[in-house]
Amino acid sequence: MANPWINNTATQKIVIVGAGGFGREVASHIRDINTYAVDHGLPEQWEILGFIDDGEPDLELCRRFGLDHLGGSDAFASLPEGTSYVIAIGNGAVRRLIAERADAAGLSAATLVHPDTTIGMLVTLGEGTVVCPGARITCHIELGAHCQVHVNVEVGHDAVAHDFVSIFPLAAISGFVTLGEATTIGANSVINPGVTVGEGAYVASGAAVNKDAEPYTLVAGVPAKPKKSLR
């Protein structure tokens, strides 16, 4: 198989946590993964049981995707034994709380890699991480648990993203960059080589980050400058 993350030998059950826009994207990605697997002689990788969402999702739109809303996070305890989960919520701090609840209920976090990606040598992906179509992850890169690499993101050599990082569409992460836990990298932003973005920081869309960003700070602009504390 060209994609080592598509390797289930039997179909596994999975729930998508978050029934908003990204949840529906993940549902589409899973179906693409299933198609790829079947085309390469493997069974469908995932049977999607439905969405878990503590809010009030658009039920009609969920059903148009062929999926039901199974309830809030209290439904974790009633899922079939062996069910996996993936969290499709952009806020890393929220993902951390949900992961704690899901893990406590005995669920396993699924790592999902869309077949239309490029992933080079010596790349590690943590449990629960999602890599979306068009992502290019070069070599010697570590992505922690429950990270999100959105559509058409580029991650350069020797970069490290700690747990619960969100990298939104078209962002470019250069070589030797370090992203602290639960940082958010906005769409179409650029993190230049060797920069460290501190834990919980938020890089605004379109920013060009040339210097280290302090933890729990919003940075924006070209070049990026600190705008406010997020504590």
TrEMBL record:
Gene Ontology molecular-function annotations: transferase activity
Binding site for substrate: 90
Active site: 157 (proton acceptor)
Annotated CDD domains: LbH_AT_putative (cd03360)
Annotated keywords: Transferase
InterPro entries per record: AcTrfase_PglD-like, Hexapep, PglD_N, Trans_hexapeptide_repeat, Trimer_LpxA-like_sf
Any Pfam family: PglD_N
Site (Increases basicity of active site His): 158
Domain PglD N-terminal, chain residue ranges per copy: 13-101
PANTHER family: ACETYLTRANSFERASE, UDP-N-ACETYLBACILLOSAMINE N-ACETYLTRANSFERASE
Name of the protein in its database record: Sugar O-acetyltransferase
Organism: Corynebacterium lactis RW2-5
Taxonomy of the source species: Bacteria, Bacillati, Actinomycetota, Actinomycetes, Mycobacteriales
